[in-house]
Amino acid sequence: TGLVSESLPSSPEKFSKDELSFVEEVPKQIEIECPVCLNILTDPQQVSCCGHNFCKSCIERVKSSNGSCPMCNVGHSKYQSFADKNLSRIVNGLQVYCTNKVKGCQWKGDLKYLPTHLNKGKREGECQYEEVKCRYEECQTRGQRQHLNVHEEEWCDQRPYSCEHCYEEAMARFLKEDLLFVEELKVPAQIEIECPVCLHILTDPHQVSCCGRTLCKSCIERARASNGSCPMCKEGMEERFRYSVDKDCLHFVNFSLQVYCTNKPKGCEWKGNLRDLSTHLSKGKREGDCLFEEVKCRYECQTKDQRQKLVIHEKDDCNERPYKCEHCALEDRYIFITGDHLNTCPKYPTTCRNNCAQKIPRESISDHLTQCPLERM
């Protein structure tokens, strides 16, 4: 199996006991199922009234609705819940097989790493047997990750595609000196690969009828729209200044120019046809094949870095990332939850004004003072 990240998801995925295949039989005396959601316990919390364990999210949902203990019916004000760290270690450390074992996946490991391995609902992930949706938004095809690779490259009707005749697909522009050619550049004498107008490698090359030069189609169209004459020989008569696809140049630029990724100095090992470099880089987009391309954080933060480094930034460091309050479960931006929200959070633990050593949720201070032994009557 591949390497698994040590970091755990912020909202643990839930599994029922029937979904899981344990490497060894779980001892019957270990309580691993939540009595509320009936799934394997996530972040187990023990209640003080009867000693049963529940998922943290389940017991907090019960208490926030002023509900009594689901097991012994003690009123919500008469019991507390606290993290059962020992049980948490036991549950997280249960050895399980991948839920796709029957399809052929050979992964096995700690239960806490299974969600990361599966990465449910995401196109990318370690488990190649997990069923997910095609990466192209408008396509509804679903299949195992390993099968979707072929579908997306060859069969998907929504995949990016360029016309073999006019190369209409949008392509990033590159200067000759920006490119790292796999072999020494040898251009046939009759073929131009640089546009004399924009000075970039030709994209969608077209030859003009007046002087025979080859330019980017977009450069020709800009010239015609501005003053109507050829940018090279200044011919202005419409019947003499026409243009058509330069097929020899198009084929040479698209299929004969083998290049390395422009991020090769940073460590990227990709190489391929020049026509595929734009797709590999996906400049300006958060997602893309090249993990060494510098792009902007997916959230409203202005941080820019290599895609591979932004994964850690977005998960652990970005002030604009989604974040859940550990006290009341409100979800918002990290900078808000850890700042302004904590000043008003109703579940935030506060100290009694009488210094009675108890920590009381902010919303329960009034109730506590009616029972505090140090409160003056």
How would you describe this protein?
Helices cover 21% and strands 16% of the residues. Among the domains are: 102 residues, 2-Layer Sandwich (Herpes Virus-1), CATH 3.30.40.10; 106 residues, Herpes Virus-1 (2-Layer Sandwich), CATH 3.30.40.10; 48 residues, Zinc/RING finger domain, C3HC4 (zinc finger) (Herpes Virus-1, 2-Layer Sandwich), CATH 3.30.40.10. The strands form 8 sheets. The chain has a 3-stranded antiparallel sheet with strand order 1-5-6, with no helix packed on it. Strand 15 and strand 16 form a beta hairpin. The N terminus is likely disordered. It is built from 10 helices and 20 strands. The termini are far apart.
